[in-house]
Each structure stands twice: as C-alpha cells, then as structure tokens.
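Deliverable D4.2, example record:
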Amino acid sequence: MSLKAVLFDFNGVILDDERIHQQIVAEMIAQEDLHLSLEEFQHHCLGRSDRACFQDIFASQGQPLNAFQLRRLLTLKAKAYQQYLGALETLPLFADVQELVEELLRAQLKLAIVSGARRAEVQMVLQRTGLDRAFSVTVTSEDVKKSKPDPGGYELAIKRLNRQFASLNLFADECLAIEDSFAGIQAAKQAQISVVGVAHTFPFHMLQRQANWCVDYLHQIELDRIQAMFNP
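Output generated by the structure prediction step:
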C-alpha cells in the first residue's frame, strides 16, 4: 500500500472564505426575520453544501423550507457569493496552498477536490488562480445527492480518478484527505480515507480528536512522514 492521491476540501482548506459565507448566510437569514449565531452557522453549514445548510437552519427554527423557497435561497446565495469574489482583485487563497500543491505534484500524486460548493464557484477560483491545471477531478454539490458527512463525494472522486487514469487502480486506503471541518473529516473516514485536519476553522485540539493527523497550517504537512505511514 502506498499513497497515490490527495483529496482536498475546498472552502476553508484551499480558499479562506468561511467568513464570507457566514456573512452572506447571516444577512440572508436576517432578511427572513430570523437570527443565526456563529455556533449555529458552524454546526449547520461548515463543511456542508448550501442546500443542507439552509435546510437545517430553517428546520431548526421551526420553519422547514419547501422546494421553491430552497431554490430561491440557493440562487440568491450563489449570486451574492460570486459577486463578492468577483469584486476582489486577489482571491483569498490560504498562503501555503500553491506550495503544497506543487510539492504533491512533484511526488507524482493525483489531486482531486471534494467539496460541497457549487461547481461554478470552485471552477471560478481554480481558473483565476491557475490551480485548475493541478486537479484531475473535481466533485461538487451537483455531483452527489447528500452533503458531507455522507462519504459519497469521496467515493465518487476515487471512481473518477480510476476512470481517468486506467492504470491507477486506486483504493480508499491509498488516499489522503485534507479537511478543516468535522463534517468533512467524518465523510472521509466513512469512505475509509485517512485525514489530515487543518486548523483553519476549528481549534487544533478539537480536530485532533477526529483526524488521523492534525496541523495548524498547510505547510506543516510533512509529506515524507505521511508517505512512510502509508508504506511502512
């Protein structure tokens, strides 16, 4: 067994945008005459799709959404988010992302993104930053029926990598996931994938309880050490 692929979460791992999401969602909830605390946002939204986020927020406040209401909120959220990012001259990538990606590519590892974000949002960021050339597979909210912590996104990423690289013969225990949220860590582990938790969003000691490894910053990921764990 050896490490063959690294699967990245997107929001909170590649792009430092969790506060942007929180601001937009909180403003939208306020327009519905409801209140959203930071703790509620973290519980319902971090690491999860917008669909799951809105459904759970409104259900928790005794106002479950019908299909029309949900579509309206998703459309408004997507528009507000893309307008916000579109107005930024420089996108808020985490400082160590590009260096880590280059190191992984030099090690001839396959890279994929497994995200609850919309495809258009992920592609916009990847194209603007030049990272689109690094990732062979991108799994987004449109590709799966359930949000993280469901493992479906990770399982689909492995299937797509095997489809794209016929000789790869990739299995879950040959992959590493990089996640910043509890939902994401749970999704990867349910897919039988080892996880590095990066403390971009939650404190180190909280992620350490669930992830196989934990770091404060991406540059602290020691690839040689992790590869040795995969190939003892």
